Amino acid sequence: MKLPDWRPLKAGCVTEVLVEPPGAPLTFDTVVPGDLLERLTFTSRRGERLLKYVEDGRLIRSVSLQGIYRLAADSAEELDQLVRHDGPREGSK
């Protein structure tokens, strides 16, 4: 994919841009079960970390979702199944 005009990005405070082919459509009508929220894991060069600010199966602050993070393979698979309405995968905790 080619971005037609890079100037708006260059003039701002953008240091990274994520360019990927289209995936599943983003909607806001899918409820992520609390038990899945509590085990969502992200990976980085520093290692793996759980989603922060989840209490009693509810996300109380969204700040840990701001930015670009890579989901751990298991978490990505579970979210993919949830978005595709396949239900939780077999063997989920």
Can you tell me about this structure?
By secondary structure, this protein is an alpha+beta fold. 24% of the residues lie in helices and 15% in strands. The protein contains three helices and five strands; from the N terminus they run H-H-E-E-E-E-E-H. It has helices spanning 7-11, 34-39, 73-83; strands at residues 41-44, 47-50, 54-55, 58-59, 70-71. A three-stranded antiparallel sheet has the order 2-1-5. It has a two-stranded antiparallel sheet with strand order 3-4.
Could you list some keywords that capture this structure?
alpha+beta, about 90 residues, 5 strands
How are the secondary structure elements laid out?
Blueprint: H1 7-11, H2 34-39, E1 41-44, E2 47-50, E3 54-55, E4 58-59, E5 70-71, H3 73-83
Antiparallel strand pairs: 1-2, 1-5, 3-4
In brief, what are we looking at here?
The protein has 93 residues and is α+β, with helices and mostly antiparallel strands. It is built from 3 helices and 5 strands.
Unreliable stretches = none
Strand content range: 15-25%
Number of helical elements: 3
Measured as a percent range, the helix fraction is: 10-25%
**What shape does the CA trace take?**
globular
- Spatial strand order of the main sheet: 2-1-5
Radius of gyration: 16 Å
Q: What is the CA–CA distance across the termini?
A: 38 Å
Largest sheet: 3 strands, antiparallel
- What number is the mean pLDDT? 78
Overall structural class, as computed from helix and strand content, comes to alpha+beta
Per DSSP E runs of 2 or more residues, the count of β-strands stands at 5
H/E order of the elements? HHEEEEEH
